[in-house]
Amino acid sequence: MSHPEVLDSLLHEERVFRPLPQMIIEAGINPQDLRAARDRADSDLCAYWEEAAEELDWFTKWDQVLDDSKAPDYKWFTGARCNIVYNALDRHIETVNKNRLALIWEGEPGDSRQFTYYELYRAVNRFANGLRALGVTKGDRVVLYMPQLPETVISMLACARIGAVHSLVFSGFSAKHLRERIREIQPRVVVTVDGFYRNGQVIRLKEAVDHALLDSPAEKLESVVVVHRANVEVEMDSARDYWYEDIVRHERAHASSEIMDSNDPLFILHTSGTAGKPKGIIHSHGGYMVGVHRTFKWVFDLKPTDIFWCSADPGWITGHSYLVYGPLLAGTTTVMYEGHALYPQADRLWNIISKYGVSIFYTSPTQIRTLMRFGHRYPDQHDLSTLRILGAVGEPFNPEAWIWFYENIGKSQCPVLDTWWQTETGMIMISPMPVSVLKPGSVTRALPGIDADVVDLEGNSVPAGKGGFLVIKKPWPAMFSAVLNDDRALVDHYWGIIPGMFYAGDVARKDEDGYFWIQGRADDVLNISGHRVGSAEVESALTSHPDVAEAVVIGVPDKIKGEVAKAFVTLIYDAMESDELHKELVDHIHRELGPIVVIKSIEFCDELPKTSSGKIKRLTLKEREDS
Ligand code: 6R9
Predict the structure, then answer these.
(1) Which of 29, 59, 497, 579 would be 33's cystine partner, CB 3.0–4.6 Å?
(2) What angle do CA 390, 328, 310 make, to 5 degrees?
(3) Beta carbon of 521 within 6 Å of any ligand 1 atom
(4) What broad class of enzyme is this (predicted)?
C-alpha cells in the first residue's frame, strides 16, 4: 500500500429518501429505539450483546460475555453450551411455529416443495442420525457440494446438530476447484447430488465429485452421499457411495443435539477471493448465532407474517447467514430458488415474489443491474404488492440501480437496505434499518454495537468527505474465529495491518452525516497522476448513463500518468454500441467526476466475468490486459 492513503472522493450523490410515516409507526425498532440501542451499546458493549444472547436458548449460560485477554483472538460467551440447530428448529417445535412453513423451495423447471418447521426438524434429525451411522462425530468435517436444494439446508443443519463442521463448496465451481477444497478441508463425508437444473441445462455434480476424488486427495474421506434430483445416470462406488434416501429411510425422526461449546466450530466457508487466494473462514456456534439472529430480526424488521427471500446461493456467506440460519433462528419462512434468474425469461424472480407473496426480498446489486437491462415491462407484469422491504449486499450499489430497484420493484413504498458485511464478519455490520433516512449508494451507518470508522494507515480517523480504510474498532459476536490452516492470518491479514483494528480491506468515506460510502476493495484503487480514486466511483459514474447496465473499471499502466482507467461495460437491452456512445461515455465521466479520471478506453461486452456470488472478477480482466 502506498502513501498518501487518503482517497480523492469525486462522486456527489445528493438524493435523500425519508421513511414513510406508516413504517415509523409499524416498525419494531423506531428511530428512538435505535438511538437508545446505540447509546446502550456505546456505554456497555457486553451488556448490549448479552441482552441479544438472552433471546436465544442455551444449555448452559456463559461465564463471560467477551474474553479479550488474548486479543485479537477474541472469544464470545465463554463457558456457554449451546447448539445453533436447537435454536433454529427445536425451540420452534414447542410453539405455534410448529406447523408454520420454514422453507418454500422452487425448482427451476417449476416444481415446488415446502417444509413446515416440524417437517424440517424431522428431516434434519433423520439425516443427522444417518451421518452418525456413517461414523461422523463431533469435530469431523463434511463437504457439501450442493446447489440450491432443500437437502442443502437439511445437510447443513444435520451436520451442526451432531457437532460436525460443514463446508459448502459452490455448485458452480469445477471438479478441480472442489479437489483443492477437499484437500484443504479433509472431510470425512462429501454430500452431493446426481445433477441439478441451471438455465435449462442439467449440471452433473456427482460426476465432478468422482473427478475431484481421483487419486484420493482426501485421506480421511470415507463416504459420499448422493441426493437424487435430476435423475441422471451416475456411477456409484459400492464401497464409498450411498444414496441419500437409503441413508435416511430407516432413521428415527428424533436426534439429540450435540452439546457444543460456544466457541466450537460450526462451519468453514471460503471467501469469494475477488483478489488473491480464497481463505477458509471459520465460524462458531455461539457468537455467530447471536449476531445473525439479532441483525436478521432488526435490519429486516421481522414480523410473524413475513415471507423472506434471500436470493443468494448457500455457497456464499449471505446464503449461510440470511437464507438458512437467520430466518430459521427467527422462526420465519425462508424461500429458496434452484435456478437462473433469466430462466425461462427475465421475469422469473418477479414471478416467484408474486407466487409466494414474498414480503422481504434480499438480493445483490449485480442481480438488479442484470434485470434492469430488460426495463420495467417484466416487473410490471407481476403483482409485487406484498413486498415491504428490499435489501442488497455484495458490491457497491450504484445509485441508478438503487433507484430502479426502489421505483420498479418497491413501487416507491419499500425501503432499500444496502447492507455492508463480509464472510469474516458473519453478520451485517453497516446498514440502514427500515426507519432510516436513505441515500442511494450509501450503506448509511453502523448497526448498534458496531464501531466502524474510516482511517488512514496510522489508524487516525480521516475527515468527512475524504476516503480511507474501512475498519471495525471493537469485536462483535459473529466475528470469524480463525482461518483454516493459517494461524497467522488473524494478525497478518486483519488485526495487524492497522494495529488494534479489524482491517476490512475496503476503501470508504464518511459524509457530514456520518454515512458510509463504500468505494471498493483497497486493492482496486486507481492511482491517476497521484490522485487515488476508488474504482466503484468511476463505475457508478458510468452506470449513471442511461445506456449502461454494468461497468467495471481497472487501472492500466501509463507512462505519463502512472495509471489510467480502462472500462468494460454492458449496455441495456435497447442500446447500441458505437463510436459516438464511446465518446459520450468518456465525456459523461468527465462531467460527473472531473478531468482527474483519465479514460484510456471503454470496451463494450456482452457479459462481465463474475464470482459465484456475482462479484466482478477484476483480476481476470487485469490479467487479460497484461497478457
Ligand atoms: C456479504 C459478502 C465482502 C466484500 C466486502 C466489500 C463487498 C459487501 C457491500 C460491499 C459495497 C455493500 N461488499 N457488501 N461493497 N457495498 N453493501 O458480500 O461477503 O463475499 O466476503 O465479500 O464485498 O468489498 O469487503 P464477501
Answers:
(1) 29
(2) 30
(3) yes
(4) ligase
ipTM field: 1.00
**Residue 568 Cα, ligand 1 centroid: separation in angstroms?**
21
Q: Which residue has the cell 409507526?
A: 25
Cell of 315: 455457497
Q: Do 142 and 127 contact (CB within 8 A), yes or no? A: no
Taking the C-alpha atoms of residue 437 and residue 444, their distance in angstroms, rounded to an integer, is 8
pLDDT digits (tens, 9 = 90+) for 528-574: 877 888 888 889 899 999 999 999 999 898 888 888 899 999 998 88
Does residue 504's CB lie within 6 angstroms of at least one atom of ligand 1? yes
Q: How many residues does the chain have?
A: 627
Task: Say yes or no: CB of residue 613 within 6 Å of ligand 1.
Answer: yes
Cβ(86)–Cβ(160) below 8 Å? no
The residues, any chain, with a CB within 8 Å of residue 223's CB and separated by 6 or more, are 134, 188, 189, 190, 240, 241, 242
Q: Amino acid identity of 434? A: P
Q: Name the closest-CA residue to atom 23, ligand 1.
A: 394
Q: Is the CB of 442 under 6 A from ligand 1?
A: no
Please give the Cα distance from 289 to 262 (Å, whole number). 9
| d(CA 472, ligand 1 centre) in Å | 14
Domains belonging to the chain, first-starting first, are 21-86+285-519 (3.40.50.12780), 117-258 (3.40.50.980), 522-626 (3.30.300.30)
Those residues with Cβ within 8 angstroms of residue 560's Cβ, 6 or more apart along the chain or in another chain: 529
Nearest-atom number in ligand 1 for the CA of 504 is 25
Contact 599, 567 (CB under 8 A): yes
Q: Is the CB of 272 under 6 A from ligand 1?
A: yes
Does 153 contact ligand 1 (Cβ within 6 A)?
A: no
Instruction: Indicate whether residue 471 lines ligand 1 (CB < 6 A).
Output: no
Q: Which residues contact 388 (CB under 8 A, 6 or more apart)?
A: 359, 360, 413, 414
